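TICKET: design request
STATUS: open
ATTACHED STRUCTURE:
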């Protein structure tokens, strides 16, 4: 390597050591922001919930969800076999069923 190439290489390394930390921070912040937006989007648009999530979303207890299931509320199994509820179907079921039968 010539003296000129060594000088250029040293300057490039120096510049990179200054620039790269800022680039890393900027990328990390941008990725974090995009992930947060994606989580908010998923939360707002999520339609399938497990029993605990559904109870929390509807402001009822998990016992209430179990009682609704006994009264006919349908669910689909997730890959592990646990019940998953579609919020739109749950709301429709609640509208169609007499609350006295549900409790």
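STATUS: resolved
RESOLUTION: sequence designed for all positions
ATTACHED SEQUENCE:
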């Amino acid at each position: 390597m010539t003296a000129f190439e060594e000088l250029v290489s040293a300057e490039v390394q120096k510049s990179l050591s200054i620039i790269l930390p800022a680039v890393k921070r900027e990328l990390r912040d941008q990725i974090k922001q995009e992930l947060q937006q994606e989580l908010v989007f998923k939360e707002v648009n999520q339609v399938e919930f497990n029993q605990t999530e559904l109870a929390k979303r509807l402001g009822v207890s998990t016992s209430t969800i179990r009682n609704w299931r006994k009264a006919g509320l349908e669910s689909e199994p997730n890959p592990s076999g646990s019940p998953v509820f579609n919020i739109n179907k749950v709301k429709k079921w609640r509208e169609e069923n007499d609350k006295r039968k549900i409790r």
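CLOSING REMARK: Helices lie at 3-45, 51-58, 62-70, 87-96, 99-102. The first strand starts at residue 48 and ends at 50.
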